[in-house]
Fold this sequence. Notes:
Layout: H1 10-20, E1 28-30, H2 39-42, E2 47-53, E3 63-67, H3 68-73, H4 80-90, E4 99-105, H5 118-140, H6 150-160, E5 171-173
Parallel strand pairs: 2-4
Antiparallel strand pairs: 1-5, 3-4
Helix pairs in contact: 1-5
Amino acid sequence: GNYLLRDEGVGVHAIWELQKSPPQRVVIAEIGTAILGALHLLEWAEYILVIDAMKAGGSPGSIYTCTLGDLELQQRSSSLHQLGIINALSFLRRTSQPRVCVIGVEPQLIEYGTELSGIVQDSLPRVLKLVRSKIAEWARQGKVLQSPQFDAKFSHQLKALEGISREGDGGWLE
């Protein structure tokens, strides 16, 4: 996504809203178009939640959820960032791939500008509710980190994101 292309930046706006009241023991990172620069973070994530603009043929502001498997099956994915995620995960040296959930929002305007269209802006509360619901589901399953050493363990990975934090949209959560 690209924050400079209005609704293509829906993930950036969603991440900024989440950062105002972040869920506990969850890493929130704005990755944007620099996904390969975040491989070190993807390396340890067990669960990744992506928020992105997704052209899927619905009405502007429509919200979609899918898994990485769904995207792999749909070779003609409508979001370049999802393809980037699929490709980026192939670079990881892991015995198992993280589970990925994608929340996509149908854009109305992809043109220069930093503000979301009204209809996509209006969809943000529903997107944030879905994000928090997914995190709560993972927490009930014991999938969200609950360790008291969390901040110390991951602070060096989070500092590495500071240089790419405003380059585009999309974000992932563990």
